[in-house]
Amino acid sequence: VLAELIEKFVSHLSESRTDCYFSMGSYKAMDADxxxxxxxxxxxxxxxxxxxxGKYLNLLKEDAENGLCFVLMNCEExxxxxxxTVVSSLCCLQEQSAGYDWFASSIFLxxxxxxxxxxxxxxxxxxxxxxxxxxxxxxxxxxHLPVTTLEYGIHPVYFCSAHHVEMLLKAELPLVCSAFHMxxxxxxxxxxxxxxxxxxxxxxxxxxxxxxxxxxxxxPDYQIYMCISVFRHLQQDILKHTEA
Length: 244
Description:
Blueprint: H1 2-14, H2 41-56, H3 64-80, H4 91-94, H5 102-110, H6 115-125, H7 131-134, H8 147-152, H9 156-172, H10 174-183, H11 187-196, H12 205-218, H13 221-233, H14 235-243
Helix pairs in contact: 1-12, 2-5, 3-6, 9-10, 9-11, 9-13, 10-14, 12-13
């Protein structure tokens, strides 16, 4: 039901000029016979984890690995069309891909391992503003960002969403905010980890689905509210650890 709902919603918005923030360009999917060997070691590990998790949730069949490789390779090629070359000594800017694509993997699971549906959805979704915040590889080396922003190698999610989380945390949860300052960590670092991984390994699958759906339906600012609500939920544990 969720797959059908987000599919129809994104399809409807992607056909409206006023709702499209990015141009989609033209892209045809590569041959379905994409070999796993073409992926980096990090991606291969991510594929294994995703397939194992998908089978545990009874969402994927035996041949799911090839389907996920197909989606990841095509996403990489599709996003490369909208990347620019940046000369930098930063390691993160010398790689064409931005690590493992947790968002694409999440959509693949939501679509029950249907590679064509997943790829079509992601291509349409890439036109919407919310894709910049939910799908982090979307803006890796992107031509949609100013060159100065690219050269710093800092993703907009860090200085937009995560920054606003810190601002809200001061007002809403001052004790949690103080605990972070005392620890030498910033809430920004934790939030970026959560968001990059689509909350995998932090929340249950149903909650991950709710996070993705809420941000798609209600807007990217709900990413910030979600992080604040998680900090509120963890407040007692955070304070307890600070005291200890």
